[in-house]
């Protein structure tokens, strides 16, 4: 095993007079990259986190998670394949998280803990998230304060023999919540509601926590009083006897079974066969049913779905935390892995030094920085809007209407950001995996499990396509409103601009010029869609049909508007950074804006901001800024401040000792001591030693036949 | 359970006077779609397969697979999570496949069987494929006929106590095969080679079949004779004692463990500690080492890597078979699933009737038809080139050089098609999954397992990015050759055209006009890259560096050229179809070409074929043709002729009874009889019944302290 490596001279590297080879050189390469830092890395962490205090707070949370025995992740990826063990482990993590989140933290801080958990074990995050984020938030949002306190008293605040699930989706109804078919029929005689599932398609489906964990469900059902359908309301329905864990009478629950990812959650289906609950288990903050069956409808129907918005907002932040994790793995690996040399027998080139490899990873590193800024901006809008809604009395209809307007703007902005950020990160995970070649396909580097766990984000809590089309409708409506001189929200106010901008010889390396360009193409795209809408209206086409025919345009305007919003957020946000950070952040911001133009070049050409020759310039500039960012690639990923525990991928560890780390992990997970496969005797040996083409010995039969014929 | 559905009037459908609801209507919807067929579906199957006889042959293969007990797929997705069971099952399938492929079929027919297996169990396909496709093909390609016959005699032809693996990739070397570090040092005294692994990074890695199955490996190692390195050659090395299944002396093997998909294959790592093999175990068709250590180098180095090309070619066909499977699932589901109604209380709309949903699925249906045509074209080139190579004597250097030129054209064309087809299908699987909402995320509808199993195709046997850049270099070289008046292959001959084409008022619904446009943008893109290359050359930039700087351009020209090639193949191929099929195939071809322009609009604008206003027309036309194809969507997917066994996704079954099928599958896989989670006593109960904030009773301590203080 001591044969000299001179047989492949491409692998001889001399550092400080000492020889290194393929196997021993990577950590040296990593250290050299780290030494290139042109900015204070720790300060960048503060910038990304939102300040030194936040960083310290975050580190305390991470430390607590990393120390918790339940969170040991040595065998995480192998356990992910073992359904039953995984679910037991996940519940143990729920217990560890519960300790942290019930210690009196604010809602924002609880969300942050859950976001962190989501990066290291999304199943555990979701499993506890359905209780705190959906059930308990739902009860808080749609129940009276007395009702909320009642369920807290039952154990809901600290999971004391209590676990809530969120029974909204049905097998036959997902995005169209208003169409769910489960019924809650008021029985005036007993002052009860009768909850019922009319067909299999009306079974509650995908209900996280239902199969094993939940004692109660917040059930979305159609309120029926005296034969009249009052639409969908929320009801708390006990699902299990908390002493015996048996199902309550009339409740049927089954396991949804295998999923694409997140098998740690016990998603279930639930059917109700005329299950009776007390009248006061209906959530009555806005809608009410009195003892004698008098129905009060809520002032605004949208109030019923508020619990979902916080999830949507946090998914933009999660898009950032997931993207940074996988980008760090791929970029670190690219700085250590060498492949091909440009001269025969010459030193092989690091992946990160190839132009195309830089282009695959580094604009996406800039994208992660942009998502971080966009998420910070979105959280501001979110807390302003929800605080206002919470502080408005349920009886103050005018105040509510005004608060709802804020929430609508929040819905529209968050819809585009949620959709394109979750898609963006799915694409980043996939590109990073491919950038690691075969080692990206290995289970131990996390991409496979990560991708499968991640992509559900594109579907749940607002399917991305549905959200995108909905945000596109809002943008067109804002464009219409501006033409009519009506008020529009802050995010759409740029639509008032003139539509005649051109590059006109200005520099494409000027942030303000790039913002001008992005605002221009977004505004023109929306304006053209408005033109078409007005035309269709004049032709007598209904509003619904007009928007239907503009489907592709709705998608396109949301895509461009959202990208513009992210670029502007990044540009605004970087102004708050310390001077030492500004140069590298400006490079990142320019790279992100320029690369985004390269991808969406056709709108810049169609809407006249750029001319064909400019596109070649854009490509040259993207090369230039990927080259600049490449020099700071390791410091920029180090600034994410993720421990090896968070990374959980041996080729992405801090020390850069990629082959050693990965080989050790593989060997520990699969000790090579067992050379015989366990199915050798049962399957393998019988196959390999089977007999071939034995002609049967028919002589006895033939003799007999001959004798008979005699 | 018999509550009327009138509570949600959106779900009342009346067909022939009978009422149906969410649950009972889907199969009726499917039947109605099927009745719309405007063409003979069976004839379309013949067209797709390449003739009636081929269809019948294919059906016989499918029947044989579906009947084989080893291929029962009832619990396929659940078993995929159970490493050990999965591998035993996969080996049983290898046995069933071996029966079929060793019955005297042609190489093409064996490839087809393996392609079919890949759709239903890619792990089984790959597991047997490493023996037949890589080991045995490798021995055939690089060994003498005596050597090939020797290994056949040892059992290699029919897996008689013999299984070969392909030890090429190392932990530290993947794409750069010429850089592998394993050594094969000739020992003149014993007439043996000594195979050795110098460092951990030189361990053979990802070796399919090594961990459990392989008795022999075809090892890529550097030939060292008298201290001189002659580059990488192939050697057969025995890995296991075939009687005891113990590892041979000096051979270390371990399991690579968990992967992103394909856990049914026992990929392993292999290290050699001075393992000795007879001289004649070196493959000596082209390279040779005589008894006394005289080395003969092969006439052309590329001859060593020929075994990989067939895999690359078959991946284009596999891209089609995988795409059609997932498209069928998503399109069938879209024809049965209803969501939202355009009027309050009105019937909900089928997903397939939404413009945007059509746009997500139907251009990709057209893409699948195009890939089928592209694959047929590629197979023609492949068989011509490989037959020629095989029939040229190893000593005929001139004949070999000419045959190699054909193979080079094959490499270039197949590189682009392999890369963009495998990426295209990965994207199709993902889009189809998302189009099925939550039910796409369920494990039982196959998308998750399918995606993970599929995407390795983007990395192995030529990483897509490496292939794309390599094909881009070839295209630029072809462009240079044309300027110098040199000969170029058939696939590049269109580069001779004039570069001044414009739409000029011609119809965008004319196939010939669209081909003109695609050829134009591809030719201009390549020509501009050639211009830039020539400039760089004049500036004194090295060839390597010039191509490096043109990385993005190389990617772009390959993307556009490959799309053009696919569109042209489709247009040519559909001319061979019967008249009854031409109208719908023409709609598909137009849709594919138009949609491709919409995606790549910027090059059509940059290179002057289209003007900005044309892009809006393209969008209108894409809407028009998705609308036309939508009417035939079910017949067009039925024509793929896939049984429910192949589909293996209850929401994609032929009968369209989506909810019933899916609920039954979920329930069968997870019988709801067990209401208590298996970890209730060990994890759940202790957590839920833990004590909170019990202030400890310190009275005894306090008394004592008080006493002491007295």
UniProtKB/TrEMBL annotation, chains A, B:
GO terms for biological process: fatty acid beta-oxidation using acyl-CoA oxidase; lipid homeostasis. Residues 305-476 form the Acyl-CoA oxidase C-alpha1 domain. It catalyses: a 2,3-saturated acyl-CoA + O2 = a (2E)-enoyl-CoA + H2O2. FAD binds at residues 169, 208. The active site is at residue 461. Heteropentamer composed of five different subunits. This is Acyl-coenzyme A oxidase.
């Amino acid at each position: 095993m001591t044969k000299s490596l001179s047989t492949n001279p491409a692998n001889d590297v001399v550092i400080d007079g000492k020889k290194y080879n393929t196997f021993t050189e990577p950590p040296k390469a990593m250290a050299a990259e780290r030494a290139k830092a042109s900015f204070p890395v720790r300060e960048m962490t503060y910038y990304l986190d939102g300040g030194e205090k936040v960083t310290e707070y975050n580190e305390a949370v991470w430390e607590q998670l990393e120390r918790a025995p339940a969170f040991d992740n040595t065998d995480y990826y192998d356990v992910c394949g073992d359904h039953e063990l995984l679910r037991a482990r996940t519940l143990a993590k729920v217990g560890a998280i519960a300790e942290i989140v019930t210690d009196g933290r604010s809602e924002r801080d609880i969300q942050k803990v859950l976001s962190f958990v989501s990066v290291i074990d999304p199943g555990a995050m979701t499993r506890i998230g359905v209780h705190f984020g959906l059930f308990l938030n739902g009860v808080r949002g749609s129940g009276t304060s007395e009702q909320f306190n009642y369920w807290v008293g039952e154990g809901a605040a600290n999971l004391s023999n209590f676990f809530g699930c969120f029974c909204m989706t049905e097998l036959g109804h997902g995005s169209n919540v208003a169409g769910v078919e489960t019924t809650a029929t008021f029985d005036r005689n007993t002052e009860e509601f009768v909850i019922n599932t009319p067909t299999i398609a009306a079974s509650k489906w995908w209900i996280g926590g239902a199969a094993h964990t939940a004692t109660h469900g917040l059930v979305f059902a159609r309120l029926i009083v005296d034969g009249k359908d009052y639409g969908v309301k929320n009801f708390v329905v006990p699902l299990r006897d908390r002493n015996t864990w048996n199902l309550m009478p009339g409740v049927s629950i089954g396991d949804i079974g295998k999923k694409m990812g997140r098998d740690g959650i016990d998603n279930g289906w639930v059917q109700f066969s005329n299950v009776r609950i007390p009248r006061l288990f209906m959530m009555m903050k806005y809608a009410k049913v009195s003892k004698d069956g008098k129905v009060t409808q809520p002032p605004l129907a949208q109030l019923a779905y508020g619990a979902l918005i916080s999830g949507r907002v946090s998914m933009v932040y999660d898009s950032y935390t997931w993207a940074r994790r996988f980008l760090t793995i791929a970029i670190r690996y690219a700085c250590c892995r060498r492949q091909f040399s440009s001269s025969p027998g010459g030193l092989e080139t690091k992946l990160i030094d190839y132009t195309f490899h830089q282009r695959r990873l580094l604009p996406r590193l800039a994208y992660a920085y942009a998502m971080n800024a966009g998420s910070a901006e979105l959280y501001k809008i979110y807390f302003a809007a929800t605080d206002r809604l919470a502080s408005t009395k349920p009886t103050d209809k005018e105040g509510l209407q005004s608060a709802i307007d804020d929430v609508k703007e929040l819905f529209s902005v968050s819809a585009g950001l949620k959709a394109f950020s979750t898609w963006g990160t799915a694409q980043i995970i996939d590109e990073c995996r491919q950038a690691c070649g075969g080692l990206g396909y290995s289970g131990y580097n996390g991409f496979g499990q990560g991708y499968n766990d991640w992509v559900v984000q594109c579907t749940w809590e607002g399917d991305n396509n549905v959200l995108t089309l909905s945000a596109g409708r809002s943008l067109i409506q804002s464009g219409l409103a501006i033409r009519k001189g009506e008020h529009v929200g802050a995010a759409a106010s740029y639509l008032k601009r003139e539509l005649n901008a051109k590059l006109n010889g200005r520099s494409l390396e000027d942030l303000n010029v790039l913002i001008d360009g992005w605002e221009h193409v977004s505004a023109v795209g929306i304006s053209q869609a408005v033109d078409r809408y007005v035309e269709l209206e004049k032709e007598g086409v209904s509003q619904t049909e007009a928007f239907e025919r503009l489907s592709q345009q709705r998608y396109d305007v949301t895509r461009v508007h959202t990208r513009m919003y992210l670029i502007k957020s990044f540009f605004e946000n970087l102004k708050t950074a310390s001077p030492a950070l500004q140069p590298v952040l400006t490079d990142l911001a320019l790279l992100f804006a320029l690369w985004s133009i390269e991808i969406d070049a056709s709108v810049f050409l169609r809407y006249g901001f750029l001319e064909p020759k400019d596109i070649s310039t854009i490509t040259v500039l993207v090369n230039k800024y990927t080259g600049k960012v490449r020099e700071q690639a390791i410091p920029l990923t180090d600034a994410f401040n993720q421990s090896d525990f968070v990374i959980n991928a041996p080729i992405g560890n801090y020390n850069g000792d990629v082959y050693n780390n990965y080989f050790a992990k593989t060997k520990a997970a699969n000790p090579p001591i067992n050379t015989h496969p366990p199915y050798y005797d049962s399957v393998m040996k019988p196959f390999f030693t089977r007999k071939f083409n034995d002609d049967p010995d028919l002589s006895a039969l033939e003799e007999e036949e001959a004798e008979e014929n005699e």
